Amino acid sequence: MSTLKNQLKDYFFTGFLALLPIVIIGAFFIWIFNLVGGFIRPVLRVIGLNYNLFLVLIVLAIILLIMIIIGKLIRTKIGKKLFKYLEQYLFNIVPGYKQAKSLVGSFSNNKSSKIYHSVVLVDIFNTGTLMTGFVTDIPNEKYLTVFVPTGPNPTSGMIYHVKKENTKQVDVSPQKAFETIIAVGKNSKELFDNLNKKN
After folding, report:
1. Amino acid 107: pLDDT
2. Alpha-carbon distance 131 to 148, whole Å?
């Protein structure tokens, strides 16, 4: 009974962390939608415009503007200090924030935050079917530890310890590989075009 309980708990937290980014984005969008909608609904009705269409466009524009403003502020000295303060005393308390930050950091240009050694196409079961993966560790001379994310939500995935000969190194940045995963495989040709000639 205790084993089943532990398994259910493990499944719950795995599912929770996988869905958390989607839930946060969805909740944020709904909140902005309702907030903006309360202000512009009367105006749109008076001038006879399609309420739903224009509201969605306005909300998307506002979200884009907010991201740009936040990005610009964080680039300033005061913004950096404020963000670090909020992160230390507020954001780190939110469940899943550290995991999400680690994932984002692994694709950033900050070398100190990267956790991926390289991008690989990996034949997990030696069948000829290749998966896009990221080398996260090199435990010994024969094996690589590879994280294979799921698409289009790469915050979840599987960790495999595979023989080096079952991987094909790809000369692209993790950002490029990440984009193909988000796009459920679109532009995968670039991965095959950049297979390391030593493979």
Report:
1. 52
2. 7
